[in-house]
Design a protein that fits this description.
With 278 residues, this protein is α+β, with helices and mostly antiparallel strands. 31% of the residues lie in helices and 19% in strands. Helix 4 runs parallel beside helix 5 and helix 5 (152-174) packs antiparallel against helix 6 (230-243).
Length: 278
């Protein structure tokens, strides 16, 4: 007797084929969707949104092309991720003072010397001072006119001489302090007259004193005084002899014609320690 199917019931063959039809329909729908949107795998992983950026440390001409999507999260150089670039230190200031120069300036300050630092001088050859100072006043409110450009060592030697020898001699001989020292040459790019040897002036290690002005109005010219100028002669002899304790060279009137009108003081470094005091 044939089986009678109830209304609306699925046939056995159709029920058996149903899962295959569902799978086929889903696959067809996925293919159709891909064809309609024309998307690629790359498009799915990398959205078409411009999120690239450029840092100020990268020059525009050398900047990399903007990255997209997740790609921007990965650094272009793996080393940069682990070791970020460190800014270079600032360049060292020019004319950095060695410790000896710093100590020399401290001694000038303790003596009450009025000075200022100058930029390095280099006029070629031996004509140079790496760390020059310009001295405009000495201890005891003694003026230096014009201001003298010297090495710090020469400035210290001269300031010590003026404080320890010149000022006491003036007070003893004239009962007056020193008002102004008038100098004729400090730094000067030149050679010793009649030779090819660089002068100590070209190194900032020499100073020429032309005259000494006292506070009582007395003006003492270094040129050889007359026979009856006893006090003036005595003062000049004292400061000249005392200078031999502070300088390696002291030359003045009576030595030669080139030094007839001034005292020359310098701190030339001689190998045997010889002092020329004439």
């Amino acid at each position: 007797m044939p089986k009678v199917l109830r209304k609306g019931a699925a046939k056995p063959d159709a029920v058996a084929a149903w899962p295959a039809r569902v799978a086929l329909t889903a696959a067809s729908a996925a293919i159709a969707a891909l064809a309609f949107t024309s998307c690629s795998v790359t498009d799915v992983l990398v959205p078409k949104v411009d999120v690239g950026f450029q840092t100020a440390s990268v020059a525009p001409a050398m900047a990399p092309q903007p990255q997209r999507g997740l790609a921007r999260l990965a650094p272009p150089d793996a080393l940069m991720a682990a070791y970020p670039q460190i800014s270079r230190p600032l360049a060292e200031p020019q004319n950095v003072l060695p410790s000896s120069e710093v100590e020399c300036r401290r001694q000038l300050q303790r003596l009450g010397v009025t000075f200022r630092d100058l930029t390095p001088i280099n006029d070629g050859g031996s004509c140079r001072i790496d760390h020059p100072v310009q001295v405009s006043g000495l201890s005891g409110n003694v003026a230096m006119k014009p201001a003298a450009t010297l090495t710090c060592d020469m400035a210290l030697a001269f300031a010590s001489w003026a404080s320890d020898e010149l000022t006491p001699a003036a007070r003893w001989r004239y009962l007056s302090g020193v008002k102004t020292i008038h100098q004729g040459s400090s730094y000067s790019c030149r050679r010793i007259a009649g030779t090819s040897v660089a002068s100590e002036h070209s190194k900032g290690n020499a100073l020429d004193v032309m005259r000494i002005e006292l506070r009582n109005g007395k003006d003492i010219d270094v040129r050889k005084p007359g026979w009856f100028s006893f006090r003036e002669r005595g003062l000049l002899n004292n400061v000249r002899a005392g200078g031999c304790e502070y300088f390696s060279t002291v030359l003045g009137p009576g030595y030669n014609a080139a030094h007839a009108d001034h005292f020359h003081f310098d701190i030339k470094n001689r190998r045997n320690g010889y002092v020329a005091c004439r």
